[in-house]
Amino acid sequence: DGGITQSPKYLFRKEGQNVTLSCEQNLNHDAMYWYRQDPGQGLRLIYYSQIVNDFQKGDIAEGYSVSREKKESFPLTVTSAQKNPTAFYLCASSTITGFGYEQYFGPGTRLTVT
Amino acid sequence: AQSVTQLDSHVSVSEGTPVLLRCNYSSSYSPSLFWYVQHPNKGLQLLLKYTSAATLVKGINGFEAEFKKSETSFHLTKPSAHMSDAAEYFCVVSALTGGGNKLTFGTGTQLKVEL
Asked: In angstroms, what separates the C-alpha of A4 from chain B's closest C-alpha?
C-alpha cells in the first residue's frame, strides 16, 4: 500500500526535551511538508522540502528543525525553544510543487508536552 | 496574498437532508481550490479539487462544489447527509507564488449529522 506513515501516533514529553517526529512516504513524491494543527486554527505550515537536502521555512518555523537526507523521509524535531509545542502534527507530500497539485496527508502525531 | 474564509465554524443537519458548507477565498492569482475532510484524530483526505477546468466539481462520497469567480466562493454541497459525513471540513486555496506552491487552509467547519 502506498501512503504516508507517521510515528508514533501519540507522544508525551517533558518540557525542555527535544523530540523528533517521524514521517515516511512511499509515494515517490518530491515535496514534503510539516503542518501544525491547533483547535479552531486550521493548519499552519512549519517547514517544507522540494528536493533532497533542501528545505524551506514555513509560516511558523521558530522552535522547529527538519532534515531531508532521503526522498522518502522528512523528520521534524520539536526543540525546547518551541514555546507551545502541544499540538497535532501532520506530514504531507505532493508530486510536484507546481500549480494545482493536491497534498496527501499522513495520519498525524499528537504531541503533548507537560 | 491569499486567504480563505469558512463562514461557519459549526453546521448541524439531520440525516438525509442537504449539506451546505460555505467557503470564500481571496487570491492575487488564478487559484486552485480544494476541500479536505478530517475525521477525529486522523489525517486529511481530499474530497475534491478545482483547477480551472469545469466550475462544478464532483468529488468522493457524493460531495460537489461550484467555483464562482464573481462571488469568490467555493461552497461544498451534498444532497443527502449520512451519519458517516460527520467530520471537520477544510477549504484550501493554492496559488503558485515566487516561493512555489503555497496552500492556505481555512479554519475548518465541524459538520454534525443528527438522526
From this structure: 10
The chain B residue lying nearest A109, using CA atoms, is: B41
CB A18 within 8 A of CB A75: no
Beta pairing partners, B56: B66
CA A73 to chain centre: 10
* B53: nearest Cα among A99, A15, A84, A64: A99
A74 close to A64: Cβ distance less than 8 angstroms: no
Contact criterion met (CB < 8 Å) for A90 and B44 = yes
Show the cell assigned to A7. 510515528
pLDDT tens sequence across A26-50: 999 999 999 999 987 889 999 999 8
Cell of B67: 467555483
To which H or E segment does residue A29 belong?
none
Q: What is the pLDDT of residues A38-85, one digit of tens each?
A: 987 889 999 999 889 999 999 999 999 999 999 999 999 999 989 999
Collect all residues with Cβ–Cβ distance below 8 Å to B60 and sequence separation of at least 6: B46, B47, B48
DSSP-derived pairing of the beta strands B32-38 and B44-50 = antiparallel
Q: Going by DSSP bridges, is the β-strand pair A64-66/B109-114 parallel, antiparallel, or unpaired? A: unpaired
What whole-number distance in Å separates Cα of residue A6 and Cα of residue A106? 6
Do B5 and B72 contact (CB within 8 A), yes or no? no
Q: What's the gap between Cα A3 and its chain centre?
A: 15
